[in-house]
Amino acid sequence: xxxxxxxxxxxxxxxxxxxxxxxxxxxxxxxxxxxxxxxxxxxxxxxxxxxxxxxxxxxxxxxxxxxxxxxxxxxxxxxxxxxxxxxxxxxxxxxxxxxxxxxxxxxxxxxxxxxxxxxxxxxxxxxxxxxxxxxxxxxxxxxxxxxxxxxxxxxxxxxxxxxxxxxxxxxxxxxxxxxxxxxxxxxxxxxxxxxxxxxxxxxxxxxxxxxxxxxxxxxxxxxxxxxxxxxxxxxxxxxxxxxxxxxxxxxxxxxxxxxxxxxxxxxxxxxxxxxxxxxxxxxxxxxxxxxxxxxxxxxxxxxxxxxxxxxxxxxxxxxxxxxxxxxxxxxxxxxxxxxxxxxxxxxxxxxxxxxxxxxxxxxxxxxxxxxxxxxxxxxxxxxxxxxxxxxxxxxxxxxxxxxxxxxxxxxxxxxxxxxxxxxxxxxxxxxxxxxxxxxxxxxxxxxxxxxxxxxxxxxxxxxxxxxxxxxxxxxxxxxxxxxxxxxxxxxxxxxxxxxxxxxxxxxxxxxxxxxxxxxxxxxxxxxxxxxxxxxxxxxxxxxxxxxxxxxxxxxxxxxxxxxxxxxxxxxxxxxxxxxxxxxxxxxxxxxxxxxxxxxxxxxxxxxxxxxxxxxxxxxxxxxxxxxxxxxxxxxxxxxxxxxxxxxxxxxxxxxxxxxxxxxxxxxxxxxxxxxxxxxxxxxxxxxxxxxxxxxxxxxxxxxxxxxxxxxxxxxxxxxxxxxxxxxxxxxxxxxxxxxxxxxxxxxxxxxxxxxxxxxxxxxxxxxxxxxxxxxxxxxxxxxxxxxxxxxxxxxx
Length: 796
Fold this sequence. Notes:
The protein is mainly β.
């Protein structure tokens, strides 16, 4: 149970000397009514529309980079000894602000101190932990612990939050200095007596930490058959997203290995080329979105180096390319975020960006609205941020802080409002913003905390990155395409050492409150990771990697699954739709090898069979990496970890590289309302596997990307469509009399099936059979829908 201490007095001077308080100070306004005094040598590192970062200068030289290695681990990115991230959250009123403190306190299971600051109620926590790692490059070595503190103040209609990080090996007294700066914040309108009453109320609420996400789950449903029509997309590793056009014909897949497009609803793909980066240095982290105009937007990380004219300057970017021909080709559009090497206090790495576009509304100027979120690494650690464009990605807004947390994911609702999901400590949270040309204003009144959760635990045998530069719980938000106030959030929640559940939460009021969730995977023990969610016809479609088939002898067997969630009567009750084993095969993910090393020896040693995953190298000269200057050198002979004699002394078997990642840091899916307005939506699942799905003939070896784009047939659709479209002898009775209908099981008899093309109803049994029997007919008419006896769940 969380320990609570209560202090009903305003803090005066610190027990420890705060020498900086006597030095010259600069007062900075964070938002209207909130200002902070910054004593030297602390300085304002950067500022957003709703927050700021303060930093304390680095006391020593930066770590020496390893030979031939990029300087991109969290430790190597440190440009300050300490950092204070200030973030202001809008709330509807003071009561909501006080309740928000309860949610914030639940992010970390540590001692929580209650106090008053600036005559407002506040909470304070202190703990240690590793620094968040960048996704594309991270140290393969020991992750040192940093000192973290958090202070949150509930004022009138806002919560002001201060998150401090003291770098590993920096003087821990800086945490006390940061706390003194926090306690000197000026927030208008405080009242000592009212704050005392709030503290008393918080002392009764702060230890409430509900985590029962399984109560009132929907009844178990039988598995559906595996999807049909799987196809190869392209060769290469995961880390992918996918988008599908409104008419359902055009599908574009982007991954670290490049992009591919399809013009027949994902039945065949053409490789378009590598990431359309125009700089001398390029990186991955691809994301994709389609705007109302039909333009396809493709974001990626650039590494400009000695570019012509020095524009952009050396450093890193989050950049966009655009396609106006359904993803066949892309041209450079703009840089949404620029992190020059010479200004590390502003940003060092704009990591793992994700984009979204408004598909239903144009901006006030008639252009596409595009949004981009990213992990903003700066002087020390990171904050999640967002920018937007109201002119189709040509120019971008000022940066806005999303919240305090990590791994932001973004989507846009049909009313133009923007939602971002992220995690903060042990909570899954969202934030909501107004449309871009309405200021991208954070919205008050939403319940930011969606749920408490337990992160998918490591190791995950065979993955070369596990919660190190990524999050396998992979929270994602999607808005109901039929109701912009209905919001879905999906993520993986660990329940035991050998089980994770994929959970879906929903809100009927735009995020103001959250309903009882549903588990969309069957109640079968197995590891599950990297889910994603999209919506079609009001139904949330969720995809994920699933290891229910794994055994002690083969602990890495992984399939790719899809399921759904929808609301049923009474309103607010979620029900899981049947699962689909999309891949239909189990991929042994350890067997795909270690093409770019791993981030932890456990990635390989957790596999059931020995893995040649390490390399024989000389040990680091220093005793505490990653601050060593000796680096790793040696024969680089492949070796098996923890195996006597694997290397010739003094070399030892050590980790190398940073992970590809083989199966990605995230794995998207895509939905469309349907083909040319038809009532049958299309869901595209794309995944990485070194084992081809059933029925897919490929001579390629190694990891490939595969796609399965299928119609989702709502319950009852097949029977309704058959009644409406098939007329044999002009009578529904004739259909049953001719043996097509099994009255007992209420489905088509035997192997009978009917196929429909959009806007071309099948009128007779003969024409239905003809459409089904002609080679390539279905492939030649994208969007054809077939009903058969196997669609048992669709005949209700």
